[in-house]
């Protein structure tokens, strides 16, 4: 009798998944029904080319761009310089989110360093990182370095 609540919860999850899986894709494009030019009208204009980008919201690339930064705490100029160099080939793209792993012996120091790196990101490339979500993590190890995983929006 004590498992009845769990059974009910599991059944509710299954029903929710079935309901979500039963719905069609809301972003699927319906084929446009345009009249085709008839053979009798040779000067009919050709139909326009389809758009190269599909409609719908942007998505995020699955593979991150990994960057390693080494600079002493407070050396923002060096952080910005390294971040500009590491992200130069991605200019013109927008980052969705960035996971920054600050290395330090203590968790609080590592997260503070990661936060400082993330602030430097917005100084290095404001167009790329203005709307990006950043997260500060601790990775252990020696101080004054960080590993970043940058996830960009798809093109």
The biggest beta sheet reads: 4 strands, mixed
- The overall average pLDDT, rounded, is 83
Helix content: 25-40%
Query: Based on CA inertia axes, which overall geometry fits?
Result: flat
H/E topology pattern:
HEHEHHEE
Tally of strands: 4
Specify the number of helices. Answer: 4
Widest beta sheet: strand line-up: 1-4-2-3
Rg over CA atoms, rounded to whole Å, is 25 Å
Beta-strand percent range: 15-25%
Uncertain runs are none
Structural class: alpha+beta
Instruction: Report the end-to-end length measured between terminal Cα atoms.
Output: 54 Å
Structure characterization notes:
It is built from 4 helices and 4 strands, in the order αβαβααββ. The mean pLDDT is 83. α2 (76-87) packs across α3 (107-124). The protein is 34% helix and 19% strand. It has a 4-stranded mixed sheet. 19% of the residues are buried. The chain is flat and about 60 Å long. The protein has 155 residues and is of the alpha+beta class. The longest helix is centred in the first third of the chain and has 19 residues, at 4-22.
What are the main properties of this structure?
alpha+beta, 155 residues, 4 helices
């Amino acid at each position: 009798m004590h498992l009845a609540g769990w059974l009910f919860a599991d059944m509710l999850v299954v029903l929710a998944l079935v309901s979500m899986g039963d719905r069609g894709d809301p972003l699927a494009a319906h084929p446009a029904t345009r009249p085709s030019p008839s053979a009798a009208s040779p000067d009919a204009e050709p139909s326009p080319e389809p758009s190269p980008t599909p409609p719908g919201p942007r998505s995020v690339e699955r593979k991150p761009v990994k960057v390693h930064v080494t600079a002493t705490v407070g050396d923002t100029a060096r952080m910005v310089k390294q971040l500009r160099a590491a992200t130069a080939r991605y200019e013109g793209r927008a980052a969705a989110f960035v996971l920054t792993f600050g290395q330090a012996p203590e968790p609080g120091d590592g997260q503070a360093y990661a936060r400082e790196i993330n602030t430097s990101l917005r100084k290095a490339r404001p167009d790329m990182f203005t709307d990006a979500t950043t997260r500060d993590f601790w990775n252990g190890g020696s101080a004054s370095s960080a590993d970043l995983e940058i996830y960009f929006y798809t093109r």
